Amino acid sequence: xxxxxxxxxxxxxxxxxxxxxxxxxxxxxxxxxxxxxxxxxxxxxxxxxxxxxxxxxxxxxxxxxxxxxxxxxxxxxxxxxxxxxxxxxxxxxxxxxxxxxxxxxxxxxxxxxxxxxxxxxxxxxxxxxxxxxxxxxxxxx
Length: 141
What we know:
The chain is α+β, with helices and mostly antiparallel strands. The protein has 2 domains: 1-37; 39-140, Aminopeptidase, CATH 3.40.630.30. It contains 5 helices and 4 strands, in the order ααβαβαββα. The chain has a 4-stranded mixed beta sheet with strand order 1-2-4-3, with helices on both faces. Strand 1 (53-55), helix 3 (68-83) and strand 2 form a beta-alpha-beta unit. It is elongated and about 55 Å long.
């Protein structure tokens, strides 16, 4: 039910989305990957090759444009490949999110495909998928 004020309604919608994502994030970090049954992006990743590792991130708009995320992603890649022994890491962005696309491009991921995903807030939303192999990371670092 709307308040009649579009600003309040949009903020309430954003808070509701964020709260839902916090629950999903908590489930992800407190549940083993084998038991986690998260949102649409996770299910697509699981079905790519029987379960791969993925990177997800969010950053407050107050910190956008400072070059922080490429550094974070590069460290996550290093950790994933050297400490966890991963062979492949995947990441995604919504097609309209050019800032996330730029982070993914800067950090050397390879575009794989785009798939339309739906959730309760964004039906039929194009989502772009990228990957990086350990060999690619070692060659390019």
